[in-house]
What we know:
Elements: H1 11-14, E1 21-24, H2 30-43, E2 63-69, H3 71-74, H4 82-92, E3 96-103, H5 107-120, E4 123-127, H6 138-146, E5 150-152, H7 154-164, H8 171-177, E6 179-181, E7 185-188, H9 194-197, E8 200-203, E9 206-209, H10 213-219, E10 234-240, H11 248-257, E11 263-268, E12 277-283, H12 286-299, E13 305-306, H13 316-325, H14 332-349, E14 354-357, H15 362-378, E15 386-392, H16 398-410, E16 413-419, H17 422-432, E17 438-440, E18 456-458, E19 467-469, H18 477-486, E20 515-517, E21 523-525
Parallel strand pairs: 2-3, 2-4, 4-9, 14-15, 14-17, 15-16, 17-19
Antiparallel strand pairs: 1-7, 5-6, 7-8, 8-9, 10-12, 10-13, 11-12, 18-19, 20-21
Helix pairs in contact: 5-6, 7-8, 11-12, 13-14, 13-15, 14-15, 15-18
Amino acid sequence: MAYWFRMKAFERILKPLQGTIFSSNSLVSASNRRNLAIGRLLMGSNEVNGSNSADPSYSKTKTAGIIIIGDEVLKGQVMDVNSHYISKELYALGVKLARISVIPDIQSDISQEVRLFSEKFDYVFTTGGIGPTHDDITYIGVGEAFGDPIEVNPEMATLLQKWLGHKGYSNEVILKMAEMPISATLMFNPDLPKLASFPIIIVRNVYIFPGIPQYLKRMFPRIRPLIGGDKKFQWKVVYVDRDEIGITPEINAVVEHFKDRVTFGSYPVIDNLYYSTRITMDSNSEADVNAAEKFLIESLPEGSVVQFDSQPLETAAVKIYGIIENQNHSLHIPVKIAVQKLEEALEKYGLESLCICFNGGKDCTALLHLLHAVVQKKLPGNESKLSSLSIKYENPFSEMEHFLTQTAERYNLDVWVYDGPVRSGLESTVTDHPEVKAVLMGTRRSDPSGQNLDYFQMTDESWPQVIRVSPILDWTYTQVWKFLRMLTLPYCSIYDHGYTSIGSQSNTVPNESLKYEDPSGEVRYRPAYTLNDSSSERNGRQ
């Protein structure tokens, strides 16, 4: 049987669930079963541990446990991404994830773990083991945990027959997938697309999901209104340019000062371009977490806290256009001009006729981010990949190759790789991609070929005929690095080892201007962004 909730007493709670059907299959009174389901789902009660809204502890932080079911996960044949997804969802809902368990496809293990988790936590989430094959025994294990017999749920069978019957699957297979504990409640919305509307099976405080990540991600949002704490977690992150060991006293002091009020985490980070330690803090109290952040920052060594943006691509348009609006910003003029040129190119040629020449260097890295910001601003919702031309040379740096791969994924680039030099690479580009009318270049005036260029200029007659667009033509070396570092953008790590202008391993060495000896007498090189004399930028090129 199916029924729609229309009770005024629950109108406020049920508003987010409009269009959702809850149904149950039971031999007991249908009305009693409905009332039990409503009580469990809407009031967050747990029949096993007896918690309910009248309990004085009801307002405390809700807890949850996740059970990942599958031999394939334990054998390393499949990577578990479901627990990571659910944990992020729960944190956003103000639910404390207390435990994650990965167990095999063994009925007794499933029933034992489900029973234990159901008694200990407010919510339990299982993934995996709900198909028609021999190892899909999650429903049986959950039923055993609560002493529930397993029967075919007629409504589930009807839905499965509707979705799968026309594909020629046997009735036996469909009925097997519809077998579940007799007290199970189905939650579904028939108006949603098939994948998103697949029923979520709920047994007491246990939410049963398929193991396929795509299904889980489509289904989970439907239960958000049913779960969650009375207060969402308040959290802060402090990024520190010091080793964790070196700031242990400061960390211990803030933990002691705010114990029982704020939860802290300290994480050393290797090979980050901006920070070495990440310190997290969260609490149900916004005032407490703000006070903890202030206490910690004031305790740390001066200049060690980094204003790090962990999502620079998501904030690109806001930050870039914010610089343009702020006439007092030190990069106001160069960023404004570059964005104007990019907007002009986008309007004149269209995104489909533009490509960016990207070799991983600092200049084209800055240009790529500017382009990303302009597209984000002018073409909101754009899902098309940015076309990128990469000229390949012999004996490249492995760090640069790695950075190119990472950047292509990060900025969603469609990378066209051609052998150098630049002229032959352009010839191949216009031959293979005749739609390209203009190529964005990270050329600056200080480059060997940049002194006589204009922002928009046709290539020389002996070259393939495309428009060269050079939006950062008048930027200085210092401005490029200030732009990258100010926005905490990723760049090739080799720049932090004394390289200021990068070609191949055959013609590039660290810049002698950045050379120094550490206390042990070992020769080292400072990062490229510390170079004071920009005229010596190319001193490392041979």
